[in-house]
Write a structure and sequence with these properties.
- The complex is a heterodimer of chains A (311) and B (378).
- Chain A contains 14 helices and no strands.
- Chain A is mostly helical.
- Chain B is mainly alpha-helical and 378 residues long.
- Chain B has 2 domains: 144 residues; 208 residues, MetI-like (MetI-like fold, Orthogonal Bundle).
- Classes of the chains: A mainly alpha (311), B mainly alpha (378).
- The interface between A and B is large, with 59 and 61 residues.
Chain lengths: 311, 378
Amino acid sequence: MTTEPGAMGLDVSLQKPSFIAVAMAGKTGPVTIVLLVFVAIWYAGAIWMNSTWEIDRFAKKNIDWTMVQLVSKTMQQERPILPAPHQVLVEMNDTIFLKKITSKRSLVYHSSVTLSSTLLGFVVGGLLGILLAVGIVYNTTLERSLMPWIISSQTIPILAIAPMIIVVLGAIGLKGLVPKAIISMYLCFFPVTIGMVKGLRSPDVLQIDLMRTYNASRWQTFWMLRWPSSMPFLFTSLKVAIAISLVGAIVGELPTGAQAGLGARLLAGSYYGQTIQIWSALVTAAILAASLVILIGWIERYVLKKMGTRP
Amino acid sequence: MSRQFDNFALVALGFVVLALLLPLTAGDSQLGWMDHPAAFSVLLLVGGVSLYTAWKGVHGTGVALLIVGLVFIGVLSAIGLMNDGLAGTASWGFWAYIFSLWALIWRGIAHISNTSTLHKGQRVATSIFIPALFGLWLLFLWEMLCVGFGVPGVLLPPPSAIFLQLISSLDILYADFVQTFMKSVLSGFIMGCGSGFIVAILVDRSPFLKRGLLPLGNMVSALPIVGIAPIMVMWFGFDWQSKAAVVVIMTFFPMLVNTVAGLSAAGKLELELMRSYGAGYWQTLFKLRLHSAMPFIFNALKINSTLALIGAIVAEFFGTPIVGMGFRISTEVGRMNVDMVWAEIFIAALAGSTFYGVMALLERAVTFWHPSYRVKHR
C-alpha cells in the first residue's frame, strides 16, 4: 500500500486540540466540573433543608408564596440549617479581610493561633519521628520492642483524650500553645517514623555493600546513602503529618473554653447556633490544611531538585 | 588484656553498687536496705548475676530467659519495697536499683531479639514476647515513678489506681462502650465504608469521574473533617445518629479513594486473559479486579477503624445523652476524677486496637496471596 500522507490526516495531526479538550483530557477539567456539581448540590441542599422553616413562616403569615420567593428567602436566613455557599463566602470576607487582624472576631487572628501550635507540634513531632526511625533502623532491640507499641499507640484515639491532656496540663500551669502542640506532636511523629523507617531502609543491598567496599563508616553510610535516599519518603509522610497536626490543634482548642483558635470558633458557633460562623471556620480550616500540604509539596520539589533527583 | 566485658551487665553492676552506697529513702524515715532483708537479698542476687554476665557474657537463650526471670523477681521486690514505706520518699539508692534492673532486662531482651537461628514457632513467640515485656516494663516504670515521687493523682494516676477504678466501674464503662462503639462507631463504619465502596464501583465505569474525583478525594483526606461534628449534632440530634453521621463522612473518602485505586491495580496481562475468556464487565470485576483491589480496600478499612472511633468520641464533645465514652471523658475531667478518665481511655484504646487487629486478621485471611505475607527467610 502506498502510504501517501493524505491531506485530511495531515490536517488532523497539525491541528492543535482545543483548550477544552486539553483540560478535559487532564485532571483540571474533570475536577472543575465535579467541584461545580458539588456547589450545585450544596445550593440545592441549602434550599431543601431551609425551606421547611420558611414554608412554616409563610403559612403563619398567611402569605401566598411563589417558588422564587421561597428560594430567595432560604438564602438569606440568619441561622440557616445549611447556609448557602455565598453566605459562607460573605462571612469569610467579613471576618478575614474587613476585620482588623487583632480583633477577636477576625478569622486571621484565630487561624494564626491554631497555626502556631500546629507548626510547633509539627516541628517537634517530625524531629521525634526521625530520631525514632534512626534508632529503629540501627538497633534491632529497639525495633523489636518499640515498633509494635508505636503502631498500637496510634490505635488509641488520642484526639478523643485531647481534652484531658489540655485540662491536666492546664492544672499544672501549662496553658495556651504548648498543650495543643503536644497533641499535634503525638499525632505527627507516627507517620514520620513509619515513613522514615521505610525510607532509611530503601537503599538496596548492592548500594550498602558498595559503601562497605569504600570502607565508609556507619555515619558516612547514614549521611551519604541512607539519609538522601529517604527524602521522598520523608516528604510523603510530612504531608500526612502536617494535615493531622492541624486536626490535632483544632480539636485541642475545643475544651479550652472557647478563647481563641479555629476550634474555639467552631465550639462557640455550635453553642450559639451560628451555623454560618461554623461553616466559615470549617472552610478556613480546610483552606489552611490544603495550603500547608501544598507548601510541603513545593519544598519537596525544591529539595529533590537540589539533590538532583529526576522527577 | 583483651577480654571483652559485657557492657550492659557492667552498667547493671555499677548501679547495684550505687544502690548499696546511696540512701534508699529521703526525708525523716531513714530506712536502709537492712530493714528489708528480702529485697536486699534480691539486690545481692542481681549484683551477682550482673557480675557473672559481665565476665562471661550471655550465652544461649536459656541464660537470657533466666535473666528476664530474675528481673521479674526484682520487679516484685521493688513493688514490695514501694508498699513498705517508700511511697513518696524513694531516693537515689532505690532509683539506682531500678536502673540496674533496667540495664539487665535490656541485656536479656537484646540477646533474645538478636538471636536469628530460630524456627518459625519461636519467631512468632518472640515477636509477641519482646513487645509484651517492653510494655510491662513501661507499666512498671510508670507505677514506680508515680508512687516513688508521690505524683499527685490528678496529674497522672499510677496504673494500679486506674486498674482498681476500671474493675469497680465496669457497668458504667460497658454502657459507654455500647453507646459509643456498638451504636455510633459500628453503624457509621459499615454505612461509610459500604457507601464508599459502592460509589467507587460506580465511579470506576467512568474515567472522567475517576479523574475528577480522585484528586478531590485525596485532598479531602487532608482536611479536618472532625470539624463537621457540631453541624451533624445540630442536624441529627444528640443521640448516636449524629455520631454515626460524622463517622460516615470520615470513613467515606478513604474507602472511595482506595477502592478506586485498587480497582485499577489488576495487571494488564490478567485483564487481557479475562478478555480472551470472553468475560463480561461484571465477571471481570468479581473474578479478578475485586480480588486485586483487596489489599487497597483493607488498607482503607484499617485507616477507617481508627478514624471511626476518633470521630465518634470527638462528636460526643458537642452534645450527647448522658452516656458514651466522649461524654464520660469530658465530664470526669471536669470533676477532676482522672482515674475514671484513664480507665475510659484504656477501654477506648483496647476497643481501637481490637478493631484494628480484627481488620488486620481479616486482611491476612482474605489476601493471603499477597507478597507482603510470604514468610521471609533470613
